[in-house]
Amino acid sequence: MELKIRTLSPTVLLYNLLNLTILISLFSVSASSSSPKLSFNFYVASCPTAELMVKSTVRSASTFDATIPGKLLRLLFHDCMVEGCDGSVLLEGNGTERSDPANTSLGGFSVVDSAKRLLEVFCPGTVSCADILVLAARDAVEITGGPSMQVPTGRRDGMVSSVSNVRPNMVDTSFSLDEMMKLFSSKGLSLDDLVALSGAHTIGSAHCSAFSDRFQEDSKGKMTLIDKSLDKIYADELMKRCPAGSSMSVTVSNDPETSILFDNQYYRNLLDHKGLFQSDSVLFSDGKTKRKVEQFSNNQESFFQKWGESFLKLTSIGVKTGNEGEIRRSCTVINR
């Protein structure tokens, strides 16, 4: 299978060939293995219009709310990094992942729920919430101008969702590069994957509290800049948007330049010292990742290619297949 993009130039053909090789290495089933695996067109017989219905739902929701794509992408990250890509972040209830303070600002749940309700009408008990979330995040990238790509499906929904598992498995916006790399490595993701997947911040928004560590309130109740690595003009804009005592509902775009487009502007922002989070800025300030940031800032095609590779790795973390987990009837509760 291949990553689909809009032209068939020689460069694109090479791009597709490279990704075909990667996909085969990631998802092929060896002749000696009988364990179920993810596969492309998993629902081709059981629910042939599944992916189309998910994409239609995402596109419709995004038309009315331009923040939806960023929310779906963030929701996927918060799912896959904790229990693996098993839809556990979608479960409601006390003590679930969703109840952790790090997850209370997540959005996009209603889109996943809408797609699930539609699929239950046409293909009851067939398409997992975990797959719906992966497909929705994939579609969110394409809808906002990013690469179009195929993803394997066949995930089943997890039946465990614990608040205690969230913090040890989630990147904090104040993390150093070494802290992020340690966590990503534990998930089977490389340093280059970290840089590419951080590019998700090219869309979406963040609450003021997510980057408040870069400022402090002085004795007069005014915010002042303490992180001198941040561009002064950009910092002043952030302080205007997030004054001392600002409401928890106030948000700022992750990318101040092209906030609703999935492009490589995020990396250009890093070069201009306009990374919103400390965890963004360190990608350019640390020599281990600086060159890759520069590469992506100069070449959007290179970023898109690596994004596709890294996204496939991300969405294969800790998946449940075969007899593991279940196919939930509703994404918010396990079957009874």
UniProtKB/TrEMBL annotation:
<dbReference type="GO" id="GO:0006979">
    <property type="term" value="P:response to oxidative stress"/>
</dbReference>
<comment type="function">
    <text>Removal of H(2)O(2), oxidation of toxic reductants, biosynthesis and degradation of lignin, suberization, auxin catabolism, response to environmental stresses such as wounding, pathogen attack and oxidative stress. These functions might be dependent on each isozyme/isoform in each plant tissue.</text>
</comment>
<feature type="binding site">
    <location>
        <position position="258"/>
    </location>
    <ligand>
        <name>Ca(2+) 2</name>
    </ligand>
</feature>
<keyword id="KW-0408">Iron</keyword>
<feature type="binding site">
    <location>
        <position position="202"/>
    </location>
    <ligand>
        <name>Ca(2+) 2</name>
    </ligand>
</feature>
<feature type="binding site">
    <location>
        <position position="255"/>
    </location>
    <ligand>
        <name>Ca(2+) 2</name>
    </ligand>
</feature>
<feature type="binding site">
    <location>
        <position position="84"/>
    </location>
    <ligand>
        <name>Ca(2+) 1</name>
    </ligand>
</feature>
<dbReference type="GO" id="GO:0140825">
    <property type="term" value="F:lactoperoxidase activity"/>
</dbReference>
<feature type="binding site">
    <location>
        <position position="79"/>
    </location>
    <ligand>
        <name>Ca(2+) 1</name>
    </ligand>
</feature>
<keyword id="KW-0560">Oxidoreductase</keyword>
<dbReference type="GO" id="GO:0046872">
    <property type="term" value="F:metal ion binding"/>
</dbReference>
<dbReference type="GO" id="GO:0042744">
    <property type="term" value="P:hydrogen peroxide catabolic process"/>
</dbReference>
<keyword id="KW-0106">Calcium</keyword>
<feature type="disulfide bond">
    <location>
        <begin position="80"/>
        <end position="85"/>
    </location>
</feature>
<feature type="binding site">
    <location>
        <position position="97"/>
    </location>
    <ligand>
        <name>Ca(2+) 1</name>
    </ligand>
</feature>
<feature type="transmembrane region" description="Helical">
    <location>
        <begin position="12"/>
        <end position="31"/>
    </location>
</feature>
<keyword id="KW-0479">Metal-binding</keyword>
<feature type="domain" description="Plant heme peroxidase family profile">
    <location>
        <begin position="37"/>
        <end position="335"/>
    </location>
</feature>
<feature type="binding site">
    <location>
        <position position="263"/>
    </location>
    <ligand>
        <name>Ca(2+) 2</name>
    </ligand>
</feature>
<dbReference type="InterPro" id="IPR033905">
    <property type="entry name" value="Secretory_peroxidase"/>
</dbReference>
<keyword id="KW-0812">Transmembrane</keyword>
<keyword id="KW-0376">Hydrogen peroxide</keyword>
<feature type="binding site">
    <location>
        <position position="86"/>
    </location>
    <ligand>
        <name>Ca(2+) 1</name>
    </ligand>
</feature>
<feature type="binding site">
    <location>
        <position position="82"/>
    </location>
    <ligand>
        <name>Ca(2+) 1</name>
    </ligand>
</feature>
<keyword id="KW-0575">Peroxidase</keyword>
<dbReference type="InterPro" id="IPR002016">
    <property type="entry name" value="Haem_peroxidase"/>
</dbReference>
<keyword id="KW-1133">Transmembrane helix</keyword>
<protein>
    <recommendedName>
        <fullName>Peroxidase</fullName>
        <ecNumber>1.11.1.7</ecNumber>
    </recommendedName>
</protein>
<feature type="site" description="Transition state stabilizer">
    <location>
        <position position="74"/>
    </location>
</feature>
<dbReference type="InterPro" id="IPR010255">
    <property type="entry name" value="Haem_peroxidase_sf"/>
</dbReference>
<keyword id="KW-1015">Disulfide bond</keyword>
<dbReference type="GO" id="GO:0020037">
    <property type="term" value="F:heme binding"/>
</dbReference>
<dbReference type="InterPro" id="IPR000823">
    <property type="entry name" value="Peroxidase_pln"/>
</dbReference>
<feature type="disulfide bond">
    <location>
        <begin position="47"/>
        <end position="123"/>
    </location>
</feature>
<comment type="similarity">
    <text>Belongs to the peroxidase family. Ascorbate peroxidase subfamily.</text>
</comment>
<feature type="active site" description="Proton acceptor">
    <location>
        <position position="78"/>
    </location>
</feature>
<keyword id="KW-0349">Heme</keyword>
<keyword id="KW-0964">Secreted</keyword>
<comment type="similarity">
    <text>Belongs to the peroxidase family. Classical plant (class III) peroxidase subfamily.</text>
</comment>
<dbReference type="GO" id="GO:0005576">
    <property type="term" value="C:extracellular region"/>
</dbReference>
<feature type="disulfide bond">
    <location>
        <begin position="129"/>
        <end position="331"/>
    </location>
</feature>
<feature type="disulfide bond">
    <location>
        <begin position="208"/>
        <end position="242"/>
    </location>
</feature>
